[in-house]
Amino acid sequence: MSAVNDMIRVPALRTTDPAVFGRVAVLLGGTSAEREVSLNSGANVLAALRARGVDAHAIDGIPALVEQLAAKRFDRVFNILHGGDGENGVLQGLLQAFAIPYTGPDVLGSALTMDKVRTKQVWLAEGLPTARFVRLPHGADVATAVRELGFPVFIKPSAEGSSVGVFRVMGESDLAPAVEFAKTYDGELLAEQLVAGGEYTVGILGDIALPSVKIVPPGEWYDYHAKYISDDTQYICPGLSGDDEAEIRRLAMAGFRSAGCSGWGRVDVMRHADGRFALMEVNTAPGMTSHSLVPKAAGQVGIDFAELCWRILEKTLGGAA
């Protein structure tokens, strides 16, 4: 391992007995735009937990889960429901009402970070760096807002993930598709400064900021295809070294905690050409597919996929850090 990884102290497991978790629901699928990715992630998590002896079962979507919880068939939930009600606080509030422990941040952290605009507003209030942006409520004049912000920009939904509905607008000739999308999209959008430096992500596991991952897509940017389909995307971990690596991990943890998050997640960070970092967004139920980044980073500090799933589930035990 590198010197960077040597600085990360991984605590001992809290338990090695799968029976302490009871019956575990692995919540996956659902109805959001990220359903297929969630099914993939969930299948991987389910297999990993079962391989370590956990009594885990797949549940597709929140309505099916409610039925099972009402019948008191589960003791805790491993949430791998990407997007929508799985990450916006709705599920978290439901589970708290049922007094069922669950993975990932609570209602506040989930609801806040699902909204990119409000997350950025909190970061700015906390003095944390983020890319310049303009909030675009439904019906806003997208073209005018983009021109005021200045090209190049990304236009994206404030409350979607997995690069769904994202437009890369380099100049006037790229505006039309984004403007047309805005007319049909009911939610809020944001126009965000395109940071032309390196793209990084930092996985969070309890009190540990895992080694950064530098993302080098085969095309011009890290779109849905580069994330989930292409085998040509390069992932460099650790993405940085020395003081730069320490700083990006510190900043990611500060961004995670200031947004009310705990448990586990992932913080995406861009780096300007002059070396400054910019927090971009927080993912409270990160992907767990073969292309996903938290497992890659965990592997760098000796945590394999099955152990990662176990450690995430451990955070649902009383008093887990």
Q: What's this entry about, in short?
A:
The protein has helices spanning 3-6, 35-51, 62-70, 90-97, 107-114, 116-125, 142-149, 175-184, 224-228, 242-258, 293-300, 305-314; strands at 23-28, 55-60, 76-79, 133-136, 153-157, 167-169, 189-193, 199-205, 208-209, 213-216, 234-236, 264-271, 277-283.
How would you sum up this structure, described in words?
The chain is of the alpha+beta class and about 325 residues long. It folds into three domains: about 5-105, Rossmann fold (3-Layer(aba) Sandwich); about 110-130 and about 195-305, ATP-grasp fold, B domain (D-amino Acid Aminotransferase, Chain A, domain 1); about 135-195, ATP-grasp fold, A domain (Dna Ligase, domain 1). The protein has twelve helices and 13 strands. It has helices spanning about 5, 35-50, 60-70, 90-95, 105-115, 115-125, 140-150, 175-185, 225-230, 240-260, 295-300, 305-315, and strands spanning about 25-30, 55-60, 75-80, 135, 155, 165-170, 190-195, 200-205, 210, 215, 235, 265-270, 275-285. The strands form three sheets. Strands 8, 9, 10, 11, 12 and 13 form a six-stranded antiparallel sheet that branches. Strands 4-7-5-6 form a four-stranded antiparallel sheet, with helices on one face. The longest helix is centred in the first third of the chain and has 17 residues, at about 35-50. The chain is globular and about 60 Å long. The model has no long low-confidence stretch (mean pLDDT about 90).
